[in-house]
Amino acid sequence: MTPQEALRRVIASCELPQVVLGWRQDPAVARTRLANLDALLDMAAQYEDACRGTRQAATISGMLLWLDRQAEAGEDALAQPGVDAVRVLTHHAAKGLEWPVVILTDLDKEVRNRLWGISTVSNQGVDAAAPLNDRFIRYWPWPFGKQASGIAVKDTIDASAIAQRYQAAALAEAQRLLYVSMTRPREMLVLALKQKAKSQHWLDSLDAPWLLDGDPGAVQTQLPNGKAVSSETLMVEPPAELAPPQTDATALYWPRPEPTAEKLPLLFNPSSVGASKGEVLDKVSFGERLHVNPGADWGVLGSAVHACLAASFTEQGTWLSETVVSRVLDGFQVRAHIDADALSTQIQAIHAWLESRWPGSKARAEVPVKTRLPNGQVINGRIDLLLETEHGFVLIDHKSSPFGEDKWSELVDTYQGQLNAYANAIAEASGKNVIEQWLLFPVAGGAVRCSPSHAKVTLRAVP
Q1: Exposed, middle or buried: residue 35 (CB in 10 Å: 0-12, 13-18, 19+)?
Q2: Residue limits of the UvrD-like helicase C-terminal domain (predicted)?
């Protein structure tokens, strides 16, 4: 998926529209939040367009970095739904927008220059062909802590030519920002002034005293060019206490509670089933216990023995020779740890046991099984050995464990859940029951019969 498609999938899968509607019981705010989700999707589309223009790959990680840059640059403006609402934002964020009424506040704040701190300096302006030419970073640290007045050195610096240049640049920037803000209203501009303020620094930068000369009750303000505009000067006092806004007590929407039942994975491998209590019904021994030299990787060794067993069923009645077994063990790089002749003899003993216990059965090795269970899960695995008899299936799972007979009961508990999962899958896929379940231990030279599961169990993945 493209980044925009992935974002749309996240919004839908997480039910974000319903979630944000439950954050506040206010229709106007709710519509704003929904509009912001749409605006986020629009920004994802802008990112993809930018990648197309520069012939770069559009990725999710790239979109996240791009969104960070938009936020740092103040280009991530909130959506503007058609609702009655008050927006509080800076002069910079107001660029390109307009409203019926605009109220300017904090006009008495001092216009701060960048004399102190970090700034960039260009003595000759910016040259597009050489943008870094004659440009440098200037840093004047503030050494006076929290003290801001009564410092002779500071007063001297403030009166210097370089300080005057910085102050003039700051005033020019304030004028530009005021131009942006004062041209945003369509119908009315309100200048909110503090009566006790000693100076209105921002308005003073305009050198327009007529803005402050209005008398209470006047209905016009005279402009320097002789024209007049409608105006009104009001003296207002804040209320002693502001009452909270009245909102409807009924929630617009509340997200559905998460179900308390465990969420099961769609695809399920029986080998990931956890331990389940099992019962040992029978034990048999065949051949002799195989000797394994020290230092063997039991995972790799088990895979090698498993491969030899599986190959032995490729032709009915024909078992692997010592030469073929040696070649398989060489392929797994475990030949130094187990004797090929002994393993070949053990495989023959296993075949003899199978034939004597289930004569005439049809053996199938490495049987893939995939079926949908009643709870909606899809089981997907591979059965080591499946014997088909006239009464049903015999399920046999190979384990390379070297433990002796005294430990087999513990192994049954460990793998009973896996056998039950396979048995359920076989019954669902074929309509025939598994009449016997066995764990086969080719290294230990034995097998154990487990209690079959006739119940339809619910499968769960191990955390």
Answers
A1: middle
A2: 32-194
